[in-house]
Automatic annotation (TrEMBL):
Topology relative to the membrane: Single-pass membrane protein
Organismal lineage: Bacteria, Bacillati, Actinomycetota, Actinomycetes, Propionibacteriales
Subcellular localization(s) per the UniProt record: Membrane
Domain of life of the source: Bacteria
Keywords: Membrane, Transmembrane, Transmembrane helix
Location (main, coarse): membrane
Gene source species: Microlunatus antarcticus
Protein name: Neutral zinc metallopeptidase
Length: 369
């Protein structure tokens, strides 16, 4: 990869621009169906004229002209909405819920309130630096503390009111920040607590308009969760930990944003000028968020009382959102990964404390298929 800066008005290949497509790159909408005008990449860069309209398909990678600064493409690349949740294995789970003798890690840390005006996302200056970030970020050298206390009680998402759902997800977000603060700051980076916005059938953000979904928007660094998500994915209401798995995955994308991994991977994918390569980068991002989510579940399992008996339902959640599960096509080349990949990387997270175990960017392509 060259040391050239990215930037300048991309010329693009024929076909819809990424922000014009209905492809649910990272959201909980069903793949294969027309989606509202949600832009998984944020606002288009200056000088890029959109072509075409909404439709199903992977994001097209616009060609890059030489020269120009990285900032020109930042708006086009800093957002990913997330669909998939993760796999799970039966190791590293706590069986002693809220034991008064437990020495919880990072318990003196005071979790901040949601930050509606967070600092800018770190952005590498060149494609070479982007490669370094996704492959060898100092974040990979950190470990996740365990056990960590979490006071978010499980709820029945199918019957919960918006107020109950909001309270639960806010409490889960507090737990997420408590778990991830040590490794993020240990890598010399800044952790941000996103807000969680509950919405109905449609939500318009700085990332565009999304239908029923759960997603992280890097344009404002906040998380959004539809109260109708269980209609699209019944497993959300059937399993008591499903909502926690979902929100942990979305926070995984927040971690990628704060470490520069997200913007680097999306830029490299677009710069490849190849749809299959772009989709591969997307799957590496999604399966990494799966792995991060698994690490979180491992960390809080003792506090929440997540036991072996919970594994079947949680694993069903992961499998339900594989690219093959949501399309019904076992051969699909999607942007999130097959159900088996969801399970594989969830397994990697739940069985490890070392963040390097979640480096999907150095994994064989068949492990993120």
């Amino acid at each position: 990869m060259s040391n050239q800066q990215w930037g300048g008005p991309p010329q693009g290949r024929p076909g819809p621009a990424p922000w014009q497509q209905g492809y649910p790159s990272g959201g909980f909408g069903q793949q294969g169906y027309a989606q509202p005008a949600y832009n998984p990449y944020g606002q288009p860069p200056p000088g890029y004229a959109p072509r075409g309209g909404p439709g199903f398909g992977g994001p097209q990678a616009p060609r890059r002209k030489g020269g120009g600064g990285l900032k020109l493409l930042l708006l086009a690349l800093i957002v990913i909405a997330s669909l998939s949740v993760l796999g799970f294995i039966g190791t590293g789970l706590g069986t002693d819920a809220q034991n008064s003798d437990t020495a919880y890690q990072n318990d003196d840390y005071r979790v901040p309130a949601p930050d509606k005006n967070p600092p800018p996302i770190p952005v590498p200056d060149t494609y070479e630096q982007a490669e370094q970030v996704i492959n060898s970020s100092p974040f990979y050298g950190q470990s996740v503390p365990a056990p960590v206390r979490c006071d978010a009680e499980p709820i029945n998402v199918g019957t919960a009111s918006d107020t109950q759902l909001q309270q639960h997800l806010d409490a889960s977000m507090e737990c997420l920040v408590r778990v991830w603060e040590p490794p993020v700051t240990g890598a010399g980076l800044i952790i941000v607590r996103p807000s969680v916005t509950i919405y109905g059938a449609k939500m318009t953000t700085k990332c565009g308009t999304s239908g029923v979904n759960a997603f992280y928007c890097a344009a404002d660094q906040q998380v959004y969760y539809s109260n109708r998500l269980d209609d699209e994915l019944p497993i959300i209401a059937q399993d008591k930990w499903a909502a926690d798995v979902v929100i942990a995955h979305e926070f995984g994308h927040a971690l990628q944003a704060r470490t520069g991994i997200l913007i680097s991977a999306k830029a490299l994918g677009q710069n490849s000028n190849d749809e299959k390569t772009d989709l591969l980068y997307s799957r590496r991002l999604e399966t990494q968020a799966d792995c991060f989510s698994g690490m979180y579940i491992r960390s809080v399992s003792q506090s929440l009382g997540i036991n072996q008996s919970d594994l079947a339902g949680i694993e069903d959640t992961y499998k339900a959102v594989g690219d093959d599960s949501v399309t019904g096509d076992s051969t699909v080349l999607g942007n999130h990964g097959l159900a088996r990949s969801r399970v594989f990387w969830g397994d990697a997270g739940i069985g490890n404390a070392q963040i390097s175990a979640c480096n999907t960017f150095t994994a064989p392509a068949n492990q993120v298929r």
